Amino acid sequence: MSKTSYEEIKGYFTTQDKEKHANGALPMRSTAVGFWGVSNMDDVKAFFEEKQFAQETRFLDIGCGDGRVVAIASMYVDATGVEYDQELASVGQLALAQLKLAATITAQDVMELDLSNYDVLYMYADRNFSYLKEKLLRELTGTLYLYHDTYHPDFLEKQKTTWIGQIPIFAYTAPTREE
Questions:
Q1: Are 145 and 121 spatial neighbours (Cβ–Cβ below 8 Å)?
Q2: What HEC string does 82-103 produce?
Q3: CA distance 157 to 148
Q4: CA distance 120 to 27
Q5: Contact of 115 with 139, CB cutoff 8 Å
Q6: Region 2-14 average pLDDT
Q7: Considering the domain 6-173 in this protein, what is its CATH number?
Q8: Where do the structural domains in the chain lie, given as residue ranges?
Q9: Is the N or C terminus of the chain more exposed, i.e. has fewer CB atoms within 10 Å?
Q10: Which residues, listed in sequence order, are joined to residue 173 by a DSSP beta bridge?
């Protein structure tokens, strides 16, 4: 969907990471509600190429940090990110603007969003799912993909795991409701 190339997106964020390193920082830190760390950009690109979602797929990156996953996702789908940390959300919004990407990042609590508006949810989970349990059970209508083997929601139905090299991306759906 985006006319910006993957190389441009990766170059932008690689430059940002190098600037952080030069100032003694890493692309990770604690936030008021968790820990921000980044997904590997090559893994994310390979994930989208493997999945081949329809362009009209509505994608939400929960806790999108600096927006790199949203930026890559915008090449393939209708991409949105939500980030609680205002500073990170601003960094992501600036990245999308500078890269001229048709994607959105909002600075707000994910608890304020209606997750049923999205076909695909993506997270690099930094804590257990107790805070999201009721919301996911009520609003998850598509698939939740979890990058890496960190925390897992034991209340959702685990689907097929996608392996990108040595990195697992786990798929979950809401439990089947009996009528």
A1: yes
A2: EECCHHHHHHHHHHHHHCCCCC
A3: 17
A4: 25
A5: yes
A6: 94
A7: 3.40.50.150
A8: 6-173
A9: C
A10: 157
Supply the pLDDT for residue 176.
85
Cα Rg of the chain, angstroms: 16
Return the structure tokens found at 114: 């209606």
Task: Report, as an integer, the average pLDDT of 161-169.
Answer: 96
Euclidean distance between CA atoms 103 and 80, whole angstroms = 6
Q: Is the Cβ–Cβ distance between 60 and 82 less than 8 Å?
A: yes
Q: Which two tokens stand for residue 106?
A: 């909002």
Contact (Cβ atoms closer than 8 angstroms) between residue 161 and residue 170: yes
- Under a CB-based contact definition with an 8 Å cutoff, are residues 74 and 2 in contact? yes
Distance CA 53, CA 44 (A): 13
- The two structure tokens encoding residue 108: 């707000």
